[in-house]
Structure formats: C-alpha cells, structure tokens
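User: I'm putting together a teaching handout on how multi-component assemblies are represented. Below are the sequence lines for each component of a complex, exactly as they appear in our records. Could you produce the 3D structure of the whole assembly as structure tokens, so the students can see both representations side by side? Please keep the chain order the same as the input.
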Amino acid sequence: MGNTAKMMYDLRLYIFGRTDKAESAVRSLERICSKYLENSCTFEVIDLAESPERAQLDCILATPTLIRRQPTPESRIIGDLSRTADVLAFLDIDPKK
Amino acid sequence: MAAKTNSERHKESGVAKAPTGINGLDEITGGGLPRNRATLVCGGPGCGKTLLSMEFIIRGITDSDESGAFISFDESRQDLAENVQSLGFDIEAMTESKQLNIITIPFPPQVAGEIGSYDLGGLIATIAHGIDSVGARRVVIDGIDAIFSFFGNESTIRRELKKLIDWLKEKKVSALLTCERGEGRMLVTRHGIEEYISDCVILLDQRIVDQVSVRRLKIMKYRGSLHGSNEYPFLVTKKGISIFPVTSTMLDYTVSKERVSTGIEDLDAMLSGKGYFKGSSILVSGTAGSGKSSVAAHFAASVCRDNKKCVYFAFEEPAAQIIRNMNSIGLDLSPYADSGLLKFHARRPTEYGAEMHLLTILDTINDFKPEAVIFDPISNLTDVAIVADVKAMFTRILNHLKNHGITSLSTNLIHGAGDPMATEIGISSVMDTWILLKITEWEERKKRSIDIVKSRGMAHADRVHGFTISDKGIVFNV
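Assistant: Of course. Below is the structure of the complete assembly, with chains in the same order as your input.
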C-alpha cells in the first residue's frame, strides 16, 4: 500500500447547516487529518445551506457526505463520521503506522 | 343556468385548494389539491402519474399564475420536455421566463459505507434551490420512492421522508409527490409512505378490460374535504388527462323554460306548439326504417339553421352516408358540416370498448361545446358491454348534458318482436321526451305514425299522428 503519510489527500465534506452533527463531523475530520495525515491533507467543507446549487451539481442527497477525491479512485461515505476506525478504513489509513 | 359545481358545494369544507386545471379533477376534488400541503399520487408504471403531476405544474403556471418546480428522479429533462411539448405547452418559454424549473436528480454514485447517522440535507438543498430559483408555489417530486433504493436503511429514510414533508409544509408550497404502487392489497405504496402524507392520496390504476386499456383514478384520502369515493375512469388525450366526473348524477340542475324547435313544424305543434325544452333529453324509438335518424337529422338541421353547434354521434353509419340519406329526403346537412357547425363523430362502439367510447364522447362534447347532441343509435352501445354498465355511464352523460343546458336526442332501435315500450337499456325513465315511431305495411303501402309517449313539463298531443317521409322531408298527414 505504501507510505500513506506521503500521499496527498483531497477531501470534501458536504453538510447542510452548521448543526451539532455537522460540527461533530467537521471536528472528526480535522482530528484525523492532523493526527494521521500531517500536512498532506486538504479538505473543504461545503455547506449546502449556503450553496444549495452544489447539491445537484455534485450529486449529494444525504448529509454529511464525505468524498475522497484524492487518492483516486474517488469514493464517498455518508454519516456523521462518529466511528473513527471506520473513517480511517475508508481513507485507507492504517492507524498503527 | 348551469348547476352548482362540486367546488361550490364544497366551499364549506374550509380547506384551501390549488386548482389543477386538469379536466374533471377539480370537480371531483371540490376545487383542486390541498394548498400548501402534500398530495401523494400513486400508481404503476405508465398509469399517468408523471403526466398528471406535470399538468399540475404547467396549468398552475398558465391558469393560476403560480410558478412551479418539477423535480424528477425518473425521467431525463429531455423526455419530460418532449412529453409535455406534445400537449402543446412551451417548456422553454416557461423556463426562460422563470416560471418553471425542471430538475433531474440522477442516480447518485454508490456510497462506500454509512458511518454514523445522516439525513437528506442534500435532497432538501436541491429542492429548496429549485423552489427558490423561480419563487415556486407548487412543487412536484416525481418518483420519491427512488430514495429508498439509494440508501440501505429503510427506517432512516422513512424518518427523513416525514421530515421532508414537514419541511415542504413550512415552505408554503403545494406539493405533489408520485410513487410506485405496492404489491398486495394492504399497502398503497411499496414502502407504506402513504402514512406520512396526511392530507391527500390519489391512486391511479390501469387495467385491461375486454382487450381495451382502461384507466381509473380514485381518491383514497382527502383530509378535511368531502370527496367521491368512486373510481373515476379517465383518458389520456392529446390535451392531457381527462377524467369522467360523477357530479352528473346529482339531480340539481336548473331546468330551462326555453324551447328549441324540433325542425319539424308539425312535431313542434304536438309539443305544445313550441318544440323540445332546451337542455332536455329526447328519446326517439322505433323499429328499423321507422324514421328515427330522419327525426334526428331534422333536429340537427334546425339547430344549425339557428347558427348553433351540434354534434352528431353516429354509431352505425358513416357521416357521408347519413348526409346522403338525408339529402334524399330534402335535408341538406353538408353546408353545416362544412362550416363546422355540425360535427360528426362516427365510430362503431366495438372500435374502443364502451367505457373508452363514452369517455371519448364526453371529451368531444367538452371540447366542441355544442348546443345540442345527437346519439344515433344508442342501442349499439350494448353490443360491447354489459347493459348495466352502459346504462350507468350513459345516464351520467345525459345528466352532464343537462347540467350544461345541452339538448340531447337519442335514437333507439326496437326489434320488431319485442314490446315497443321497452328500450334495450331501459333508458326511457331518464328521458324527458319520448317519441315512438311506428311503421307498418298496409295494402303494400307503408303507414308511418308518430306518438308522443311522454314529454315532461308540457302539454303534448295524446293522439297518434300519421306522417310520410318523402323528398320533402317528414310531413304529417292532415
């Protein structure tokens, strides 16, 4: 699989309003990025309450939706990201590294 | 002069309604769909739910000046536009002028997993944006049950759907959602979502009867409003959906005192000197060759001479033959046919099946708006359906005509052997005027007679009169 710390991660998190669940998802993601991805992660939060046209453009139905754009292949999960281990698995991050 | 409509009768219900403009639907619902609430339209594939929901939006724009958003999970924008364009509406113009917004939500990319709880915020964002872009007062979500196939957790989706409905109420839009019909008799929808739509549920059905496709609409629920509990047959015509309303069984039409000439001076004389009552129903019975169609044609000609419109529904002979036959008795119908005052609709009942046939009749009448209608002969209608059904539907048509002040004349063939007073479909009781024609051979000559069996509300001759039919038309014997 290679050294994940050297790979650039490009993530996008779609939320609908700054609700508690949305905030908690943002915080989970921030934590994961700082703890496991150091400086090789960019992530963008898109609030559909402010930019609703993005929902149709990017095919978002459920929120929160996390899209991993890099590394490819692009893939997505939905939910408040409350289970860190599962998020890491989705991002192909081996926590023991 | 027109009867009270269902809308007027149901104004007391207190539920504000959004008129649909769909032929017959506003009558059945007492004014339209519940305003600022959600209506569910449910049915199998091809039953007409997308068309109905499209008409709700389009006619909301054209008739009620209310912008609309049409959100579809199923069809592409191209297909939708084409379907509605064929109804004669300019989708592009409406979109351009920001009255109409058509949004297609494609199948979303596969989700690799669900981590924690989620809601349908993305869907709501799209709907909100769709509504706000045009200031929509109406919104359609076509194929809402698609969301169950996008996500694994059925109870989460049900909960979210309920939130969506509540959100739509707060948004103050009249919403129409369509979904597929479930299997089995208990559930209306596959996922039981009719529970969450508390205000109005409409079921569309399509089945094959006598090798003809028959469509029916039923209002399962309409909170706060009276509604008919019947199944209403409907057609999909080139102008959209056309529903056969049932108001016509109410006996509350106002009766006119105005008279119309029969077209035969001597017959007018038999009817207290003035002719038929306008908006009444006339039955002309007799055996073959007794002159029924001639009496009918005289009436048609009289209506047209008065510069009024008449529809001649011919169930046995083509128009050209009728015109030719009438020419031989000195009655020239062709100038009226050419000028458009006289419209022939010649179809054998077997061509469609009785129910479709009767719906087409109603559609033609609503479209053409005649003063008088002729059915020649109604005895043929029983060829294709059981008598009870034909009688029921034909009675409704007659009542519908009375409600609109349209005079109708029906001819009925009596078979020689039977009781001349009995008609095939027992329809004489709903007729206001009943004329019986007889023809007997006597010393190698034909003796014709005309008898007015009844004519409600007027003094009429109670003698039988003899008459002849020659190239001068129907002339009574002195």
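A couple of points students might notice: The interface with chain A takes residues 103, 105-106, 108-109, 111-126, 128-129, 132, 147, 150-151 of chain B (CB under 8 Å). The radius of gyration of chain B is 27 Å.
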